[in-house]
Design a protein that fits this description.
The protein has 3 domains: 81 residues, Winged helix-like DNA-binding domain superfamily/Winged helix DNA-binding domain (Arc Repressor Mutant, subunit A, Orthogonal Bundle); 95 residues, Periplasmic binding protein-like II (D-Maltodextrin-Binding Protein, domain 2, 3-Layer(aba) Sandwich); 93 residues, Periplasmic binding protein-like II (D-Maltodextrin-Binding Protein, domain 2, 3-Layer(aba) Sandwich). 41% of the residues lie in helices and 21% in strands. It is built from 11 helices and 12 strands. The strands form 4 sheets. It has a 5-stranded mixed sheet with strand order 4-3-5-12-6. Strands 10-7-11 form a 3-stranded antiparallel sheet. Helix 5 crosses helix 11. The longest helix is centred in the N-terminal third of the chain and has 20 residues. It starts with 9 loop residues before the first helix and ends in a 5-residue tail after the last helix.
Length: 303
């Protein structure tokens, strides 16, 4: 038998006939007319080459062939209803899966502690993994499910990746607590005279600062360029460099090093922090749950 030619709608017909032992009652259960049910029974008989149900004194009686296949048909239908048509439920309290996030080094400091705390509460058996990927690698990682969500600012991700706004990030300046050249406020003149430590990152903050200064025909004195933020507080604490950094990471730095936070004399646009996921997983129950958790926790920045 070529199963691709079999109408799977005949399986519920068989189930209803076997359980009700009546063409009329089976038709009513399935919302069919009696003539449509009789036609479906005729097709079943042709497919299986067996009468399946014969008329008795009070009801339709199953043949030996019908009794033989009744249990497999019921189990198949139950599994289809449970595993295919039940909507793909997800139980965070029971899951043991690993959730993977793509985070920058700033994201790891800002997002991870709160993510861990919330996941421990809502999904205590789940595990968490953090990745740091370039934009060219990130799209494929999201598509293949290697990464569930990317949190932060990733302006180069293509249209196949969905996104949701979390909050706006502003920028401040940091310097060592006893910096001899910085008073109660950081003026633009002092900002331009001092040497800067800068972080080159996908957010392109440095480009935004340089464009803002370029409109004033001014330039910074960049003495040090690094690829990540985590070394900055210890460098700033021990030098006369200043740096322009995200406000939330500046607060973390101040708790760990003898630094000061000052408003930046150069106004650069705030950056929108978002969560990103691939369209392939847009309707996935686990991914939907995870996105909801992230939205609840990070719709506003921590204070």
């Amino acid at each position: 038998m070529d199963i691709s030619r079999v109408d799977l709608n005949l399986l519920p017909v068989f189930e209803a006939l076997h359980e009700t032992q009546s063409v009329t009652r089976a038709a009513h259960r399935l919302g069919l007319s009696q003539s449509a049910m009789s036609a479906a029974l005729a097709r079943l008989r042709a497919v299986l080459d067996d009468p399946l149900f014969v008329r008795g004194a009070r009801q339709m009686l199953p043949t030996p062939r019908a009794r033989e296949i009744a249990v497999p048909v019921r189990e198949l239908l139950e599994r289809m209803r449970r595993e295919i048509f039940a909507g793909g439920g997800f139980d965070p309290a029971a899951t043991e899966r690993e959730f993977a996030f793509c985070l920058t080094d700033v994201g790891a400091v800002v997002f991870l502690p709160r993510l861990i705390a919330e996941l421990r509460r809502a999904a205590p058996r789940a595990r968490l993994r953090s990745e740091q990927l370039r934009a060219a690698e990130l799209e494929r990682a999201l598509e293949e499910g290697v990464v569930d969500l990317a949190l932060g600012s990733y302006p180069d991700l293509p249209g196949g990746v969905f996104q949701q706004r979390l909050y706006e990030r502003s920028y401040v300046c940091i310097c060592r607590a006893d910096h001899p050249a910085v008073g109660n406020r950081l003026t633009l003149t002092t900002y331009l005279e001092l040497e800067h430590a800068v972080v080159r990152s996908p957010v392109r903050l440095q480009e935004a600062i340089d464009r803002a200064l370029g409109r004033r025909a001014a330039r910074r004195r960049i003495a040090l360029s690094v690829s990540h933020y985590l070394a900055l507080p210890y460098l700033i604490e021990r030098t006369d460099f200043i740096a322009t950094v995200p406000s939330e990471i500046a607060e973390v730095f101040r708790r760990r090093a003898a630094i000061r936070i000052l408003p930046s004399p150069v106004r650069v646009p705030d950056v929108t922090l978002r969560q990103h996921w691939h369209k392939r997983y847009h309707h996935d129950a686990a991914n939907r749950w995870l996105r909801g958790l992230v939205e609840r926790v990070f719709s506003e920045p921590a204070h």
